[in-house]
Design goal:
The chain has helices at 33-43, 63-73, 88-98, 118-128, 148-165, 181-185, 197-203, 227-245, and strands at residues 20-26, 50-56, 77-81, 103-106, 136-141, 177-180, 208-213, 252-253, 269-270. α5 (148-165) runs parallel beside α8. The longest helix has 19 residues, at 227-245. 34% of the residues lie in helices and 16% in strands. It has one domain (20-247): Spore Coat Polysaccharide Biosynthesis Protein SpsA, Chain A. The chain is an alpha/beta fold and 273 residues long.
Length: 273
């Protein structure tokens, strides 16, 4: 991972409530913490007020101790630790649930996602927002920096998933995403759901837009997933998401029985369960 471009001055304290929460799930990523946190802070230094929420999925390499030390240096950093390993989806859910901002950005904790791409996703989110909570903006890794076997397996999985779910997302596995917190918390909650966030967003009546982003070699440590793990778990989960997609609940409320100040009935509104 390239050395972060940081300023010599100490991180400035928050000036108000966060508008953006950057959620980073980690498992045994102690060596990647400092450089990634500093890159996130540098990327958002001139942007909206933000917080960084790390979720440690019960690491065994001292990740939690390093997060505690780093939180003393970075006033925008918060962290949580699971009592026992629960998986990446659970870590993302814990982070989004604990987040204080209405808008969420996620990225992987291994340094392969470039935080410098977050402002690009935020700009696209603002441009695509049209009177609703806003779409999900998901990264599309233009040039994968993975092994050939992992690259081939990912391409096959993406094509199968896209064909069966019609989620209009060429790279759903990219950890770099921006989305409304409320939309995420309205999704059905299950293990491995992070693999299917675009399909789940569309199931709830939302929109998904892909944006080209960078992809980098892992900074340190080792991947937590094997090719066969992705394949077999993915097939089982894919069948479950197909079942969910066929049973959405998105009623359109025509009238809630409450008149406004002028005495006229309110207009129609949608409801996401």
């Amino acid at each position: 991972m390239a050395a972060p471009q940081t300023k010599n001055a100490a991180p400035s304290p928050p000036s108000g409530p966060p508008e953006l929460s950057v959620v980073v799930p980690v498992l045994d990523e102690a060596e990647n913490l400092r450089p990634l946190i500093e890159e996130i802070a540098a990327a958002l230094d001139d942007g909206p007020e933000f917080e960084i929420v790390y979720v440690d999925d019960c690491s065994g390499d001292g990740t939690h101790a390093r997060l505690a030390a780093l939180a003393a240096e970075h006033p925008r950093l918060r962290w949580l630790r699971h009592r026992s390993p629960c998986g990446q989806s659970a870590a993302i859910w814990s982070g989004v649930e604990a987040a204080r901002a209405p808008l969420i950005a996620t990225l992987d904790g291994d340094g392969q996602n470039d935080p410098a791409d977050i402002p690009k996703l935020l700009a696209r989110f603002a441009a695509e927002r049209a009177g609703d909570d806003g779409p999900m903006i998901t990264g599309q890794r233009a040039k994968r920096r993975d092994s050939r076997l992992k690259w081939i397996s990912s391409r096959i999985a993406n094509r199968v998933r896209a064909g069966l779910l019609a989620d209009q997302t060429p790279d759903t596995g990219c950890g770099l995403k921006v989305f409304p917190r409320a939309a995420f918390l309205a999704m059905p909650r299950f293990d491995h759901m992070h693999r299917f966030l675009p399909a789940l967003m569309m199931r709830g009546g939302g929109r998904v837009v892909s944006v080209a982003v960078a992809h980098r070699p892992r900074g340190a440590g080792a991947s937590k997933y094997g090719v066969l793990d992705r394949l077999w778990i993915g097939i089982v989960d894919l069948l479950g998401v197909m079942w969910l997609k066929r049973r959405p609940l998105n009623p359109d409320i025509a009238d809630d029985g409450k008149d406004d100040a002028s005495g006229s009935a309110p207009g129609p509104r949608s409801h996401r369960p």
